[in-house]
User: Fold this.
Amino acid sequence: MDQFEFMSPTKFILQKDADLLCGREVKKYSENVLFVHYGDKYMYDSGLHARITKALADAGVACFELPGVQPNPRVELVREGIELCRKERIGCVLAVGGGSVIDTAKAVAIGVKYDGDVWDFYSRKAVPAEALPIGTVMTLPATGSEGSNGSVLKNTETGESADTMADCLRPSFTLMNPELTLTIPKRQTVFGIVDMFSHVLERYFSSSRETYLTDYMCEGVMKSILVNARALMKDLKDYNARAELMWTAVVAHNGLLAAGRNQDWATHTIGAQLSAQYNAVHGATLSVLFPNWAAYVYKENIPRFVQFANRVFDVDIDLYDQEKTALEGIRKLREFFESLGAPSVLNEIGVESDEKFTKMAQDACRFGSIGGLRTLNAADVEAIYRMAQS
Amino acid sequence: MDQFEFMSPTKFILQKDADLLCGREVKKYSENVLFVHYGDKYMYDSGLHARITKALADAGVACFELPGVQPNPRVELVREGIELCRKERIGCVLAVGGGSVIDTAKAVAIGVKYDGDVWDFYSRKAVPAEALPIGTVMTLPATGSEGSNGSVLKNTETGESADTMADCLRPSFTLMNPELTLTIPKRQTVFGIVDMFSHVLERYFSSSRETYLTDYMCEGVMKSILVNARALMKDLKDYNARAELMWTAVVAHNGLLAAGRNQDWATHTIGAQLSAQYNAVHGATLSVLFPNWAAYVYKENIPRFVQFANRVFDVDIDLYDQEKTALEGIRKLREFFESLGAPSVLNEIGVESDEKFTKMAQDACRFGSIGGLRTLNAADVEAIYRMAQS
Assistant:
């Protein structure tokens, strides 16, 4: 077990109509708020926009809006939000949506408190030191940004996707109304499940030893995702499974499951290049890449892959051929993603040729080699892209 | 899965010499501090007292001391602490010790901010609304008070033990140096293990349904306690097991493992009377009572006791005789506590006769019936005391 520091100060409320508490919660921090959202048809037609604005008005909170967040959210919109906050002296940011909306809101919250350009945090020129209070109303459980210390943005000028991390990015409150997630279409539901499962995998595949508590918790979280994912595949409107997964997204990514050990995160970094170059959906990049990453690196730590196979997927351990057990676990992982209908090869997510592999691999390693379980350089990353072609 | 609200804002730092960070951390809140501790021989001879006072002095924090905390901490000392804080205008409370010290510090922190007598919170005449910032340096992992929202005190005038709970009781920071725990004698080590295991049991034995995530996490935490407890029984100076258990005490009791369901807590309430009447050690009351409580209530929810037997203690499920499996799990629980050398019958903890059973049972139910899995009245509680005689 390694040393660690862990803080997750967010107040989480999960209940029917939790979103209606946004006025009361914002009011604890500010008389006005920047309401960040997708601004899409669903936001208005579903009545959610009206629910939020009414709840804010009822609490006496003045509301300014920043609609127009897109998947793989852009820094340009963040800059608009920062300007609006400064002009109107806004004291709190409320994200209503999924990870892209929350990451946008977080970027606004740190940008307002910073003299330079907000992209400095993402290009690692600066580290966020303070932020406006951030609240979230989660509608698309997946990235766990509603409880995490990170934010991912895309810079359309350079095509880069990059992240920044600091405890001041953790939301002050997160409101989870599972009913808001009952109508999420199957495709997004699946990518959300893959994303949260991957957040556990990135922490589980560690080279640290003797981390029994964190191991068992990771395995438990993964097993519960299997149970709830299967329930949702039978009935997308299963309230209990929706509620469980809503909370799972938080637990998978607030940092608890990394306590006391190093983490991997190579797959996220490799996948981010697919999002940047091909605008591929985050969860889709993970379902394609994770089994291939695993197949590429498993020899580095066979006991860990054997434990994964045995404890998460109930594969009996063949003590005479442990490698076989490890590979069976990887096969089960791929099978799980496929059972959800998630893609497993690159051409399913719009990557038809290998023309960008070299550049993407170099970009993935632009801050140095990646990965905690096995260190990967650009040549390794390119090899993984090639494996993912079939 | 039920609705829930969960917040655990404490910053946790686990590392060698973490205690030396107390000056830096206190300084974020206040220029002076009330340093609460046992004031026993160990505190001075071990050098811990000197380490803490030097760390505070080095950070420029003025230090006032409240030594003299005893196990089953007394409200009288709390009142002294409150007076001292008011007189010296102290802005932060630092607990250095185990649960009794932390619970004392918490009581001081809420008492300072309250006009009436601090016991009002424990007699449920008032609910704590605000507190001085609380920091802890954990030396005796067990109660989890270093991450929890609760405090337990004893009122020597009435003989009552009682608790109070509110989010303002959660520490701002908790510093965990596993090296400080290497010399904990076996007896206290064991009671700490029983206590943290029991905190999971109280949450695990729930009547709520379909809480897969929380179930799996509870089971994982219990399994990791089994692993680390066995390691410590072989070598009390096993640093890794000490570090794991130090963090486990927090996870077991910060509320995470109750997310989305009701809890039981009858056993703690029944045991508190043994502490009040016989000054029995908290962990010892739990090791005696938990298997007896389980044997008394298991028929209320056989599937849950079967799941416990199977997933925590690897008992194969006899589907033709599920009650047998449930009982085997309870036997394994008793066996685990006994394997640590923890007591299993009342006369081992100084309770030689049944003379106080009726009164203790009535006192245990003074706020109404108790227990979430099965509701117990005073007659049930008395029956459990009788079962625990042999």
